[in-house]
## 1
Amino acid sequence: MSAPRRLAELTTEEAAGALRAGTVLLLPLGSLEAHGPHLPLETDVIIAVETARRAGELLAARGITALLLPPLPYATAECARSFLGTASVPAETVTAQIVAIAHALAPTAGPLLCLVNAHLEPAHLHALRAAVSAAEGSGCRVVFPDQTRRPHVEALGEEFRRGGGHAGGYETSLVLAAGGRVDEAARRGLPANPADLAAALRNGPADFRALGGERAYFGDPAAASCVEGERLYSLLAGMVADAAAAALDSSDTGR
């Protein structure tokens, strides 16, 4: 399968020919935040970019043109604020930036902007949903495939379902499969942290340390594997490709 072209690598004349109705713009969304002692700060960006790349390949196989946008590496990351290297921005800023990008690149009757998100803090997810609503109100087409909602969440593994996946087996497997940097010595020596992060965050944002994540990880990093990462990417990329194709089909048929 052919990899999606990167918009930033095109000339302005090439972009003018590519930014047309029926094109899917894949926007990877991540964060710059602590991910345990074994994963890089850009973990979510790595996962989002790799998911978007693979989704673009799936769309190309269906005859749909996809372009890969540069990733947005900043997000609302209040839970990891106390860890050095984390850069949290207000949710309103996240929403406004996405809406502005939609206006600039995917105006009415233009391409579809598809948000490929790998940062799962609740406030950030709310910001993305708000961006979709705001863009729709102004005539832009934006779709957000949300892996935290059914039916997707059911297929992504027990650790993900119970909300313990920050820098655990789920994310570590994805970084391994993407060829990202993983400190293997640190990873193999980490004990599982079974704290239910999702349940704890239902009461609002709180520092990872207060939630039982003194080293900014939850779940079981030592159980991660490339094989599991490949399985997860197949699901995530398929979810994104299906959502983008469905949005195009809905627009074409006027539903």
## 2
Amino acid sequence: MDTELFVGDIVEFSADGISVLCPRINLCTRPSVANLDALIIVLAVLPSPDYILVDKLLILCAQQKITPILCLNKKDISTKGFLKKVQNDYKHFNIFIVSAKSGKNIKRFKKAIKNKFVGFCGQSAVGKTSILNALNKDFTLEVGDLSKKTDRGKHTTRTTEIFKLFKNTYICDTPGFSKISLSEFDPNTLKDYYPEFKEAEKGCKFSMCLHINEPDCKVQELVDSGKISEDRYYRYLDIHDEVSREWKNRYGKR
């Protein structure tokens, strides 16, 4: 079998030594995991959230048909402003607010991932492994902390590993990361991965509206009225610019 394998792949072996890779449901390249039911995107008030990273992960989930779940850890130190911002920017997604330290809402979160294979991802030191330890008290996985000098996360999880939480429920813990590329995305399709644009764009003047500078754009109208998050919309513009540059460098055109 010459195909590259990823964590989460299902492989069948025969008695004569021949192995066959079963068809994948999906493949997430960052983090590199196959066949996920859901991707848990963990963020916290510290380290400072990288919302561009969150948006890119949500785009990858939509493209691969993976259910995204936002998990806000460190409820015990979270500010009202942080919680309000996340809930406003991502009101079209499932959000859980938990505290791995105190155990707040951990039971509720555990029910939400029951009978699923889920991946945990996000920046270093947001508490991915701490949540995993809180979900199963038998786990004693090493956790990291913030660098005192920079308030940035230290890498503790160094490999992608699958853990059995309980019957039919598996969790894939992944190393923290701060960058992700969407270089293979066509910039003209990027808008299709924003659920808040879907219903609104029916009112756009042009059927192929990119919601950037076109006249009579319903999405821009809803942004101006506060019905679509302005911050998330402007991050969309930044991501679109980045993807457009990468697309042009690759194919020589927009």
## 3
Amino acid sequence: MNRTRRRDKKSRGQSLVEFTILLPILIMMLSGLIEFGFMLNYYLDLIDAARESARFAANDDPIRDNAGNYLDPNPAFYTRAQQVVLDSVNIGSGGQIALDPASDDIVISAFSLMNGAVDQRFPNGWGENGLNRFGNHNSGFTNAEITSRLDAAAPATGAVMVELYYDYHMVLALPWITMFVPDTITLHAYSIMPNVNVEPTPTP
């Protein structure tokens, strides 16, 4: 009987030591998962904002004014699309995301697509950079990368792309997380929608 009691006490003591050793590791893993969850939530809000803006911009004209005159870039188009982003981010995230003009950005590009490739990119004169709001970032996609996502058999069409760059600052920012992952992580969300206003003009 005494041997059994001693064996039980020894087993409980061993379990306690093992748990004590593993507890810090478990806490580190759990806090890492929580931090990743916060970041994922922010990223999903950014995707929603980019999609909402691209959906709005799909019905707007990036290269003509209200009178139908050619205007590239059309400032009103970009202002409206960027404002949709700002409103969507603020509403969708419950105000937890506020784009910082010093580091974040909204980049908008429009494309004429023909024969499964980028025929022309707007605004003209900006190359492959797209038009940004704060001047911190350019488009994350070259024309070749856009072309690689297209179906060569697809009919000629137009498209608009909205990209968001947001510097995520960790909510917990615990030292055992920042030791391996930088405290500021740049999130890049984007959405592409068709836009008939920039379809290639057929050659007469």
## 4
Amino acid sequence: MADDWQKLLVIGAGGHGSEVLSYVSDLAEQGQRVQLISFVDENKPRGPWLETEVIGTLDDLNSLVNSHPESSYLYITAIGNNHLRRDVVGKLESLGVRNLSAWTLRHSQALVGRKNEIGEGTCLAPGSVITTNVRIGGHCIINVKASVSHDSEIGSFSNINPGAVIAGNVRVGEGCYIGAGATVIEKISIGEWSIIGAGAVVTRDIPPHVTAVGVPAKIIKIHAETDNRVGP
């Protein structure tokens, strides 16, 4: 690999990890000089996986990066669980490794307008739409054909699932999970770490740490701040 290629490590060798591999391959074929060199996963054995390999745990990642201080490495998380994604990023940041930084994946088929802010470590999947004057925090997943309209804000570690629609002037708090095909109408606020079920239509503000489902969306559960659930 030439020195000007970016070396990428993906954390999470599961379904979303396989998607990230596909996205990175698309970008490389279109001329972006980034190469996925390996996956990191606490729950998979070392060895070949798909077109590359799993090198081990976060400790193994740390050893690899520290053993090549002359090289720069990028990472992106491929973990659907928002709490776990936050915990992994926290652990990586606590290592203080100078030659490892978060990478923002913007697929060539993502439509991103003007005056938007996209946080580090976020994934913009194919068909996702970010219109204008949108702020998206770090380490979010904006999945296939999800859309975020003007003047909206998505908090860090949120997951906007396929086909979800976030209208204009919406505030989505940190760590929220917006289910596939859900719609959040304009000027709505969703509190941090809340879950919106697939297909729900949110027509009024949702407080933090709850699950809301249905049309219109209604709260069906209040959950603890330490709840590690991904979705309803």
